[in-house]
Amino acid sequence: AAAVAQLNEFAETSLSEYTLGAWMGSYQGVARANTLITRIKSADLDNSFKDQVTGEALFVRSLFYYNLAMLFGNIPMPLEEILETNPKQTQLTQTQVFTQLVTDLTDAAGKMSGTRSQFGRASKWSALTLLGRVQLHLGNNSEAASALNQVINSGEFSLLSNYANLWGPTNENSEESIFEVQFVSGGFGEGSGFTNSFSPSADLQTGEGGGRNRPTIDMSRAYETGDLRYKVSMDTLYVLNGDTTYQRHVKKYESNPFSNFDADNNFIVFRYADVLLMAAEALGEGAQAYSYINQIRTRAGLSDISASTPGSFEDKLLQERRVELAFENHRWYDLLRFGTAVSTMNAQFAQQGFSITINENNLLFPIPQREVDLGLTQNPGY
After folding, report:
1. How far is residue 179's CA from residue 379's CA, in Å, rounded to a whole number?
2. How far out from the chain centre does Cα 79 lie?
3. Neighbouring residues of 78: CB distance < 8 A, sequence distance ≥ 6
4. Sign of the alpha-carbon torsion through 319, 156, 133, 24
5. DSSP 8-class letter at 247
6. pLDDT score recorded for residue 204
7. Which of 255, 265, 270, 292 could form a disulfide with 280 if both were Cys (CB 3.0 to 4.6 A apart)?
């Protein structure tokens, strides 16, 4: 509980178990991808199969490196299998990491097919979606639009007519899903913990709700009147043993787990609505950008917006991303990309009555102390 409170208050240290877990888990995935990428080159396999598998590994490695760079900033970026025990590590800047990711994701997209028949495996569309996101972070808007338009024009994806049909074990791998991490419950050690982690503190379905990932009052108020996504995404009331209880909670990951932290819910990493909103961001304010945004608003039961709608284009776009992609692990990266993380968080703390303020030094996790002891440079402020 103390470690969670540290994260919530931007008070984590270089010894935090959660930041160390994020670092170690990501680099474990990187190491596995590098082993495959390195060794498959000499394997006696069909070249088209080798390309497909190499592309998948490049995408997965890129996703790990994207998250590491967003969370930790300057990071080591080995691109081949490492067999020595304590290799010398060189940290690259976040920009250098993203520049390498452009190369890797372009390569991955060229190697992979566009078929979506094998759910849970990456396709060229997964690589192009992440490529578009990385290009946006680099400020390369035309290049981002080029990557994202390939996904839009592929004809492989579409918005579901009902937002509610995106969620729950019976709605997995839909026409809107671009890359989705697969989970299977049943006591096999392959289930997800999302239902428990996002449930109220005493949930009828699971008996062990986390009660930690609770939407703020400000999040509840972010939805416009009549937004069909609100009661699908979150609620303020739930019923336990026949009694109605007040507690804001997330609804997207509701299910009936086999046991605690063993649910069937997949996790959608990328979906088509995100691509449309990123494409709007890449294009900038104009008729086509608002067309993409309004496709999503129409599904939500809301009226169109345009250049005449009050607010800057960036504010309107960030608002649409906030409510469309709520609780899907995009918000923090959006705030960083739009340059509003510090002001948004300080306003949030003030609204909740917390005597906490953050600055630019709080936007990255500290490099784990064990890595600093081995020669890595710590982030400022730690």
Report:
1. 32
2. 23
3. 30, 34, 87, 89
4. positive
5. E
6. 46
7. 292
For residue 295, CA distances in Å to 88, 120, 242, 272 come to 50, 27, 39, 11
Nearest to 169 by CA among 271, 234, 59, 256: 256
Q: Is the pTM of this model over 0.85?
A: yes
**Distance between CA atoms of residues 98 and 62, nearest Å:** 9
* Sign of the dihedral through C-alpha 246, 251, 254, 260: negative
- List helix spans (H) across the chain: 2-8, 17-39, 47-72, 94-111, 124-138, 141-152, 194-198, 217-221, 230-233, 272-283, 287-299, 313-324, 331-338, 341-351, 369-373
Residue type at position 82? I
Tens-place pLDDT, residues 73-112: 999 999 999 988 878 889 999 999 999 999 999 999 999 9
Token pair recorded at residue 62: 């890129």
Q: Cβ distance 199 to 296 under 8 Å?
A: no
Task: List Cβ neighbours of 152 (8 Å cut-off, separation of 6 or more).
Answer: 275, 276, 279
pLDDT single digits (tens) 35-59: 999 999 999 999 999 999 999 999 9
Identify the CA nearest to 140 among candidates 36, 320, 284: 284
pLDDT digits (tens, 9 = 90+) for 251-307: 999 888 898 889 999 999 999 999 999 999 999 999 999 999 999 999 999 999 999
Q: How far is CA 381 from CA 39, 72, 133, in A?
A: 40, 13, 28
CA distance 123 to 114: 6
Does position 365 have pLDDT exceeding 90, yes or no?
yes
Taking a C-beta distance cutoff of 8 angstroms, is the pair 68, 23 a contact? yes
Pull the structure tokens for residue 295.
Answer: 């496709």
Contact 255, 263 (CB under 8 A): yes
Question: Residue type for 125, please?
Answer: W
